[in-house]
Amino acid sequence: MSQEIEIEYKNLLMMEEYDQIHSFLPFNSVELFEQTNYYFETADLKLREQGSALRIRKKNNRWTLTLKQPHEDGLLETHDTLTDEEANLWIQNKPMDKPHVSRQLQELGVDLGDLEFLGSLTTRRKELEYEGTTVVLDHSLYYDREDYELEVEAPSQSKGTEVFQKILKECNIPQRKTDNKIKRFYNAKLQSD
């Protein structure tokens, strides 16, 4: 599928809260895996201005180019698969035309030639199915930062809210306004420049 609507709920965690959720749900039986996001933007921040973000993710030795755009129910994600060679060209600031993402970028008024590689963020992730949702614990590393995060990915807003609130309540964790990974990455990049 080249497009999907992503409905997710996020909460930054202290390390102790991460450990608490890890114990509350059966995360001990789940394998830890690592994924790296490579982020792209124009010099004049055209994507960011439109609430959008562009990344390449390497996960399970597969490369996926993803454009995230605002959508009334969450985020519209548009995907294209990349070969190793194509991903490396993108990271070297030589982006290649890909059918689905390129079409969406064109609609946003973003030219492929204006995109620049910004850097990468690596996440150590555990995920499990829980009450009709996917619950994710992330430990992310970027620039000189690291953070911990709970994500609940759901088929509907009502189901996502229900499970997200239940986990926070059961673990006595306050709900925090949480920017997505790319915003946290941008903020760290701006502070490091």
UniProtKB/TrEMBL annotation:
InterPro entries associated with the record: CYTH-like_dom_sf, CYTH_domain, Uncharacterised_YjbK
UniProt domain CYTH: residue ranges: 4-192
Pfam families reported in the protein's UniProt record: CYTH
Database matches in PROSITE patterns: CYTH
CDD domains hit by this protein: CYTH-like_Pase_1
Domain of life, source organism: Bacteria
Protein name: CYTH domain-containing protein
Species for this entry: Halobacillus yeomjeoni
